[in-house]
Each structure stands twice: as C-alpha cells, then as structure tokens.
Amino acid sequence: MRDPEATKARIFDAAVAEFARHGIAGARIDRIAAEAKANKQLIYAYFGNKAELFSKVLGICMVDLAAAVPVDPDDIEGWVDRLLDYHATHPELLRLLFWEGIEYGSAELPDEPARQDHYARKVGALRDGQARGVITDAIPAGDLLILITALTNWMAVVPQMRRILAGSRDSDRDRLRASIKEAARRLVAR
C-alpha cells in the first residue's frame, strides 16, 4: 500500500542529506531517489525540478529553525545557547545555506519574498527589543541579526577552525561557547 506522505518524508530526508553533502549543482536526483526508495518521477511530481526541490528543502529547514529557536531579545545568551545547540544537532542547515550562497551569490533567490518575510519577523523581534530598551539601538536590528548569527554559526560551519583555534576538548568547546555568549551580550548591551 502506498503512503504518499511517508514517501515525501523519505524524499525530503534524502534530499537534505544529498544537498548538504553536494550542493545544488553536485546533487543528483537519482541518488535522492535511491536513498528515498522512490522513483525520480515522484520527486519531480512532489517537489518540481532540482532547484525547486532545494528551495523547498531549505525553506522547510528554515521554518523548523524559526520554530525551534525564535529570536529572543530579552535573553540573548539563552538564544545564543539554543542556536549553538540547534546547529550542533542540525549541521545540515548551515551547509545548505552555504551551498545556496555558493550557487546564487548575491543574485535573487527563487523564493526570496518568502525568505524576506521569514527574516523580517526575526528583525522585528530585535527591533521590538530595541524599542523596549532591552538591547542597544546603536546598531540596526538587521545588522545585529547578521552579527549574532555569524558569531553563533561560524564554529558549526568550520569545525576544523574551531578545533585548530580553540581546541578540541569539551572544556575548549565550553570556553568558546561562553566567549560567544559574552561577545553577543556585549554586542547588544545598552
């Protein structure tokens, strides 16, 4: 008996892994189909072409992140902790974002209006914190979002640099986490 939702979920999971590993250009629909135990025609029927599949995969991953780790201007250090934990357990999201950057550069993204809405909500949360005086308004909210996410995401994106520069022991990771939180706290301090 066919279960279209289970098949879509298997395709999605296989596509996440494939795109995270190989990017848009290097990903292969036949490998996704084989891993998902689905035929290629179903992938095209459910998700469209490879670029559309990538866009949908990344969009869903971004929605998952937004739901799991909402921006919290009232608890910047807690937000940083949650971001670090999320990316430690979901490193594929940052890989997908970097592949997207490699593929598209500064060109408009296929789903850019939806992405702008996604980020507008995050920037809006920071603006609200600025308006309430809980974080600095000396730096525009969008810039703060870029700076804080860069601080938190970079060690997951380049784990080799984290290991080389900060060390590989648990105590080194804990120290670096504390440093990132301190840097974020200072960045938003009034």
TrEMBL record:
Residues 28-47 bind DNA. One of its GO terms (biological process) is regulation of DNA-templated transcription. Keywords: DNA-binding. InterPro entries: Homeodomain-like_sf (IPR009057), HTH-type_TetR-like_transc_reg (IPR050109), HTH_TetR (IPR001647), Sco4008_C (IPR041467), Tet_transcr_reg_TetR-rel_C_sf (IPR036271). SUPFAM superfamilies: Homeodomain-like, Tetracyclin repressor-like, C-terminal domain. Gene3D superfamilies: Tetracycline Repressor, domain 2 (1.10.357.10). Residues 5-65 form the HTH tetR-type domain. The keyword DNA-binding applies. It holds the Pfam family TetR_C_21. GO terms for molecular function: DNA binding. This is HTH-type transcriptional repressor. It comes from Streptomyces capoamus. The lineage of its organism: Bacteria, Bacillati, Actinomycetota, Actinomycetes, Kitasatosporales.
